[in-house]
Design goal:
about 190 residues; alpha+beta; 4-stranded mixed sheet; 14 strands; globular
């Protein structure tokens, strides 16, 4: 697939907007039942129950603004009910929308399905430390292969860690965010050949 021109790394704008976290009660329930929710690229389907979340508050550090699209944990994004239909169409089969309960308001976690093997090994430069790839900053230069990106709306890349990516494909995640002028995320262009 290459009905796009650019690829972006998608991240939350944590310095400017609030983040979501599971409520203390939710964390206790999951620990007690030994049922921690993780996003591993697999569909959750009927096994998912709405998770109770709240805005993360860190005294003296929490931004005041609430985003249109929020970061949840280290790897997930969440959208409010009002954006659901627009993003459902744009994300297609790449993402599963899972309900969250934010103080009685419905939000949806974006469960990114699958993982694409899209790193261009010949052009990517790894950041080495003591003979191994650095765990904190994996890449000096990350280059993706456009021909290996099968679902460009919103995706994870095998070997790229917790990074999330999207392309500028028509009707996709990037275009939706720009056309709806939603807040909370930042996009950094990634080299793609």
């Amino acid at each position: 697939m290459s009905d796009f021109n650019k690829v972006y790394a998608v991240g939350v704008n944590a310095g400017e907007y609030q983040l979501l976290q599971e409520t203390m009660f939710e964390q206790s329930v999951q620990m007690t039942e030994n049922d921690l929710y993780t996003f591993d690229g697999k569909r959750k389907g009927d096994a998912w129950r709405p998770v109770s979340v709240d805005w993360l508050v860190v005294e003296g550090e929490t931004p005041e603004k609430q985003p249109d699209i929020a970061g949840w944990g280290a790897m997930a994004f969440a959208i409010p009910e009002r954006l659901k239909s627009a993003f459902e169409k744009g994300l297609g089969d790449c993402v599963e929308l899972l309900p969250l309960d934010l103080n009685g308001e419905t939000w949806y976690a974006l469960n990114i399905l699958g993982e694409q093997d899209a790193i261009d090994p010949e052009k990517t430069e790894y950041n080495m430390k003591n003979g191994r790839v650095n765990r904190v900053r994996r890449f000096k230069k990350l280059v993706l292969d456009k021909q290996k990106i099968a679902c460009g709306s919103l995706f994870k890349v095998k070997g790229a860690g917790i990074y999330t990516f999207c392309t500028d494909q028509t009707g996709g995640f990037y275009e939706l965010c720009k056309s709806l002028e939603v807040s909370g995320l930042k996009f950094a262009e990634v080299e793609a050949t």
